[in-house]
Amino acid sequence: xxxxxxxxxxxxxxxxxxxxxxxxxxxxxxxxxxxxxxxxxxxxxxxxxxxxxxxxxxxxxxxxxxxxxxxxxxxxxxxxxxxxxxxxxxxxxxxxxxxxxxxxxxxxxxxxxxxxxxxxxxxxxxxxxxxxxxxxxxxxxxxxxxxxxxxxxxxxxxxxxxxxxxxxxxxxxxxxxxxxxxxxxxxxxxxxxxxxxxxxxxxxxxxxxxxxxxxxxxxxxxxxxxxxxxxxxxxxxxxxxxxxxxxxxxxxxxxxxxxxxxxxxxxxxxxxxxxxxxxxxxxxxxxxxxxxxxxxxxxxxxx
Length: 303
What we know:
Blueprint: E1 2-14, E2 17-28, E3 34-39, H1 47-61, E4 73-74, E5 77-79, H2 84-94, E6 98-102, H3 113-131, E7 136-140, H4 147-163, E8 172-173, H5 179-186, E9 193-195, H6 197-200, H7 206-211, E10 216-219, H8 221-224, H9 227-237, E11 241-243, H10 250-261, E12 293-294
Parallel strand pairs: 5-6, 6-7, 7-8, 8-9, 9-10, 10-11
Antiparallel strand pairs: 1-2, 2-3, 4-12
Helix pairs in contact: 2-3, 3-4, 9-10
C-alpha cells in the first residue's frame, strides 16, 4: 500500500486551525481500482481515537465504503467565527438553504460571555437574513456553555434567527460538554439538541441514548471508525443522523460523503461543505457543493 504525507491550508481560521496535515493511503478496491483513504487525526486525539481514524482510513483505502442509496445529498454551509457581514456574504456565495454557525467563542479562548453572546446574536441575524424565507440555521457551541448559561443563550439565538426572518433555529449542536447537562437542557428548551462530541470523543452512542440527551446525532466517519461504523450507529440509535466532515482534505471528505449517500433522507442537510474552507487540497479539484448539494465523483489525487 502506498502512502503520501500531506499538508494543506485553510482559507479561514477554523476552530483555531489554519492548516491540516496527515497521510493519504492508496490501496486497491475489490474491483481492482485504486482506492484512497486519509489519516489526519487532530493533535489532541488519544491513541484510541487515532485508532478509530486509522480504521476509517483503511476502510476507504481498501475500497470498502458502503454503496449509495442516493445520487447526491443536501449540504449545509459551515460558517466559522467571522464578522456578521462576512458570514452573510459567505452564505450567499455558498448557494445553500441551510447553514451551520459556530457560536460560543473561539476554540481555546477565554471570552467574555456577554460580549460573545452579543456577537453571536449579530451573526445569527445576519446569516438568517442572508438565507431568507425557507432557510434553515443551526448553531454549534462545541460544548462551550454551562447548563446555567445555555438556556438563555439558545433563547437569544433562536429569537435572533426569527428576527432575521426564519422560523427559529433548526437545532443547537453540542451546547454543553457533558451528557448529563445535554439531557437536562433538552428537557428545558424547545429547540432540538444534536450531539457531536459526546459521541465522537468516546466512539460510543449508548450513553447519549440512555440519557435521552439528544434529538439528532452528528456522526463524523473519520473519528468514528469509518462510514460503515456510522451506519451501524445510525441503525442502532433510531434517531435522525447528520453526517459531518472532520475538516479533512477532499479524500477524507469523500469517505464522509459515502456515509451520507448510504443513508435515507432524514430531512436534514449534511455537514459536508468544508471543502469551501480549503485554500489548498490533496486533489486537483476540491469536492464542494453546487447549489447546496454534493455529488460524488472521481478524485485525482495530487498530494
